[in-house]
Design a protein that fits this description.
mainly alpha; three-stranded antiparallel beta sheet; 18 helices; 7% strand; disordered N terminus
Length: 510
Amino acid sequence: MNRLSPILLLISLLSACQNRSGTEQRESPDAFIPDIPRTWDSTALAGFDLPLATPKATPKQVSSPYYYQLPERIIYKSYPIYTPDREPKNYLAWLRKQEPQVAFDPANLKTEADWIKAGELVFDASIDTTVFPLQVVRDTAFYAPNKMPVSAEGIMPFARYVVLKKGLIAVSGLGCNMCHTRVMPDGLVIKGAQGNLPEARRLAKFFQNPHVPQEAVQGFARGLTATPWLADDPNTWLSQQPREKIVAALNAMPPGTMFRQGAGILFPPQTPDLIGVKDRQFLDHTGLNRQRSIGDLMRYVALNQGMDYLASYAGFMPGGIEAKILPPPGKAFTPGSAFRYSDAQLYALARYVYSLKPPTNPNRVNALTKQGERIFAQQGCVSCHTPPLFTNNMLTPADGFTIPEQHYKQYPIFDISVGTNPDYTLKTRRGTGYYKVPSLKGVWYRGPFLHDGSLASLEDVLDARRIRDNYIPTGFKRADVSTQAVKGHEFGLDLNGADQQALIAYLKTL
């Protein structure tokens, strides 16, 4: 065996040291150096939005210089909100003695786990402290009358207390946790899941108060949903109605749907499940935004936490006035639009969302589910809900939308309409003319179903009676109707009862 000379051995050792020098910072298995994209990057933004179904109204976003002049949000330490009967003794008095503490500091984040944990802080962070007044969450009337879900520990997980200064406590609002937290019947809290906060019901009750000016209720509806470029826009029509009609529209929304900006009140979308979103190529039910990288998820959060109110839709700015001039940076246009998340905060949040795992599935594989798996394949469900993601990540056109020829070259399109209600994607600011093919993973803990949440359960989805005009939807039903057919996605409706039972049993194992 040849032996290296002392000189060659020395050279070999030096070479090995040089080869390691570029990764010296990563010598610890936990070391992590983040590669943080620039959120408001003009090149990335150019291909981020899909055109709207009315192309001229496709939003023009604020410029990168304007965005980065907005002050960064400060994320403070927050504390759980207990129901009045479960709150620890002297809890609020103790909170009032606390000093505000900055909870997010990227300088302290050394490992990947640190960044993910910090992302959870961003997920729970407030962008507005007026949504839930302090006296509201401390009132028993906030809970039982609103059927407010709470955890097994008696915690209301959709918001948190924040110390603004010593002695001054507020309640966080409009954080990601508000819409994307689900409380299961046993009190288990699932962060990132399709949420079940009954906020529409609470807001409707608030708007019924005669001390709330009707003009404020109408202004809320207009800023939230108006699409004035549409002829006979139903959203603008609603914003001009007496408060009673707006209240009725809000009361029609079951938990699991949401009156999010740019879409509901008349056409509320089903609240999306964020667990597994890393594998989705499109964001929003209408595929409104593409997800090509973690940077796109960061952009999506920034838009949905205030920036879309500053966009121009054919000259219409949803934040209030149909203005041509943006407010000075740091001056509120609407909640969320006066500040921005830092790129580091958005990156941490995206890492946290990507890390989310589904809860332990109690449904076990057995002979019945194996039969259901065969039926799933025989019925052709796999063409759209393709394993292992149980989505083909494609866009399907809504009835009434003509696909522009160039779209076939730009986007993955499954050129068959499944016939579901087209209003959300044709009559809202989020309407692209398409619906994305959703994943079926985790349907056992989700509901209501379809993009508008019109069906409460999987059993309802496979109920052939739902396509009849005399059907009463078990989920969302428009306030102005007593019966309403839930048409479209008619796959499996002709299966016999035993096969439907097997198919549902299989779906619940995903």
